[in-house]
Please model this.
Amino acid sequence: MLSEKLLEELNEQIKYEFFSANYYLAMAAYCKDQNLEGFANFFIVQAEEERFHAMKFFNFIDEMGGKVIITGYDDPRTEFESLVDVFTAGLEHEQFVTNRIHHLMDISMDEKNYPAISFLNWFVDEQVEEESTMTDLLSKLKLINNNPNGLFMLDKELSTRTFVPPKA
Ligand code: FEO
Model:
């Protein structure tokens, strides 16, 4: 059972997760335009993860007897100045999502909604990983400082990333 408030906020989160997927696809498009196929692959996989997140919320709302509401969202930013700009935007976006998840957790705890708390715990952990991935790549890019060899190596490394749906 979900309160009206929690149901509304969980539905809102579906929108943010799908927006995240679009945002990362916009970043992938920028990377492709720069002939950085490995970086593009990284963001395409990231977009798949976001759709997986959205569907987790979709299924949870349904399992809890709530009605899923799908809505649209604003267009994502599509212009970037550099890879550092892209990953800075990615990190800021993940920090925004982390705040959203914590907000959902606050409501669930206030309402003593134990199934929601248990469900959201997965996302609390996931956000630690999401922010860490963006921070790590942003640090590497700053270190590389546009050195072509460094960029080539990192692009190659990121081309191997694949989406494996988590079990939990
Ligand atoms: Fe769904 Fe990247 O957080």
In short: The pocket of MU-OXO-diiron is lined by residues 17, 20, 50, 53, 94, 97, 130 (CB under 6 Å). The two ends are 21 Å apart (CA to CA).
